[in-house]
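Hello K.,

You asked for the raw outputs rather than the summary table, so here they are, unedited. I folded two proteins back to back in the same session to keep the settings identical. This is the first:
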Amino acid sequence: MAAWLKSLRSYVSGVGNVATAFLVGAALTKIYYETSDTVHGKSSIQKQIQEIVAKHDNLKHGSHLRVINPPRVGTNVEELDTIAEDNIFKYGLPKRSPEYLRFKNHVLCYDQAKKTPRWVLEHLTKEKIKGEADRVHSVFKPDPNVPAFFQSSNDDYWDSGWSRGHMAPASNSKYNQDAMDATFLLSNIVPQDLDNNANFWYRLEAYCRSLTKRYSNVYIVSGPLYLPKEQDGKKIVTYEVIGANNVAVPTHLYKVILAEDNDKEAVLGAFVVPNKPINFEYKLQDFQVSLGDLEKYSGLAFFPFFDAHKANDLCVSDGCKLLSKERMELISFGRRLRNSSSSERLEMVWEEMKQNGVIPDSYLIDIYEKRKRALMQEDRKSVRDI
């Protein structure tokens, strides 16, 4: 097992006390709100709280420091000044982009410092991954919802050695061109290893889409991670930044998948994938982690309104089988055929495919014939315009 995964799990082993305090605090809150509106509850709740606190010494002290009563939304600076004796709110609180940005087929939280998303949430169905939307009509561009000062730009990625990696893939929104276009906003993009983006990560995205054949609803959260390495006996986090805007290059990428259907139990899987080339010897299971481990390292609670204990392991239930090397060769040639800029280039790719022993299936033949017709029409139009 990878060293970083072992480090991840050992790191989590010492958080039992924190988790206990969190769960106990949640229990106290639940007890209070479920009983505080009854006369009988007032006495019983106090007794229950006293019993719980007696068992957990760390809850006895400093409650006045842990409990904060925030001012109401919309309170102006003058009102805040009367609340804080030291005038702490005089010049306002630090501000960031909206808590989340909502698009047609995905929602994301943007990290203004790293110029990448923190997380991107999608909801897939078999209807959403089919349609006439085409990425050739989409353009990578800064997200106008993000203040210009905190945006990344295409120039940051240009000649950086890193590709523009979608967290919400374009192919997940084939049902609507606007939805697909939104996936090309740079708020949805991270610097990603080119081979990783075009191969292993693509295979993982394709697997997510295949789940819609077996489950009516598939929920996915994706994002970047910046994990530590062991160096001179210390844990060190280092990562590259690119471009004038210092866009952070993640060390890893994560994906959490929750699939459900009325006729079967829900399945759940969490994965952490290194941001580097991954060959076909690796299975998706090699990068599976517990949901708790990923939450600890990301600082995020995934699907907080879903009881993860009620879900089966995704890879145990569904197999987590990715596209084969042979299938990926077909897809790779399909991309090249689709992107051929001339009839001559199209025929060169078609001939190369045959020389490599790749037998075209109906998928490749359809791409080849459609692109051939389109290029012939462009050629005839060019002749008429002369």
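The second followed immediately with the same parameters:
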Amino acid sequence: MGALKYLSKLCIATTTRTKRKSVQTVEIKVKMDCDGCERRVKNAVKNIKGVKSVEINRKLSRVTVNGYVDPNKVLKRVNNTGKRAEFWPFIPYNVVQYPHVSQVYDKKAPAGFVRNVQQAAPLPNATEEAITHLFSEDNPNACSIM
């Protein structure tokens, strides 16, 4: 009877398809001082399964990895090299609505970047909004008020 169970298990189609990871771009901030540091980080990351390309910008302390990878796995691999690493915390200056709100402006940020903080836009008072709307160009009656 053992042979029949074995053969029946072979005949039953049990496919467990794993979901393929999507192509991602992972950006990591890593302080690299020399060519040796850069080489160590690049070799550690390019050996991860699914990595298509690795770009390193030593001036910005930025490593960009493209491919079918898990971001946490890439970060862990970079941390294993002995370098302190974190996900890239900056976004371009022109993307942020209020770049000088507290906790956004960072002196350590590279030129043209600010810290990526989920911020709530400061809400104007209701009276300020009403007064501003009276004299805006969108209001067709603005000339009659003046």
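The mean pLDDT is 77.

Happy to rerun anything if the numbers look odd on your end.

Regards,
P.
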